[in-house]
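W.,

You were right to be curious about this one. When I first looked at the sequence I had no strong expectations either way, so I just let the prediction run and decided to look at it fresh. Below is the sequence, 195 residues in total, followed by the output.
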Amino acid sequence: MVLSGPSGCGKSTLSRLLMRRHRGIVQSVSVTTRPPRPGERDGRDYHFITPREFQRLIRRGRLAEWARVHGCAYGTPRRPLEAALKAGQTVLLDIDIQGGAAIKRQFPDAVLIFVMVPSLSVLKARLRQRGQDSPSVIQRRLKAARRELRAIPRYEYLLLNDHLPQALRRLEAILEAERCRVARKRVILHKGVLG
C-alpha cells in the first residue's frame, strides 16, 4: 500500500495509527538526505544518510525507487521491501507521487492511495500549524501540492483526510477490501465452492 499526497495532508499520522491498530503491517522506512526534524529518529522515521551514501545506493541498485523532493533525496530500500513481500506481509509506503509511480511499475499489485485535505487553504493552515517550515518553504510546498493533485487519476483511491478518525476508518476499509480481493488470495475456485 502506497500513501502519497502533499506535505501536511496527514500521511505519516495515518500510517502510524494504522500500524498501531493492525498487526502484520510493515512500514517501509525510507532513506533521505535531509536532516531530521525535531522528534524524528534515525531508523524509525527515516534512515538519515549523506548525499554520497545515497548516490552509492543508487549506483548499486539498492533502491526500489528514489526522487528529489523539496531539494532533498528520498528513496525506498529494495531489500527490506522485497523480503517483506516475499514473506506475505502487507507493506506500507509513505512516499511522493514519483515514488508511487515507480513502485507501481515494479510491483503492479501495489495499491496507490492519494491522501488529501478538503482544500489548499486547509493544507496551508496545517503546514503553518506544524511550525516546521519557513513561509517560503510553505509556499514551495503549496506549489508542489498543486502539481501533485494532477496525479490523482493514476491512483486507485482518493482518501480525504478531513477528520482524522473518519480518514483512518476509510483507510482501514481500503486495507480490508484489498485483503479480500480474490486476485490477492490467489484462490483457485472450482465447482461447488460457493454453494
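Here's what jumped out at me. The two ends are 33 Å apart (CA to CA). And, maybe more interesting for your project: The CA atoms of residues 66 and 123 lie 25 Å apart.

Coffee later to discuss?

I.
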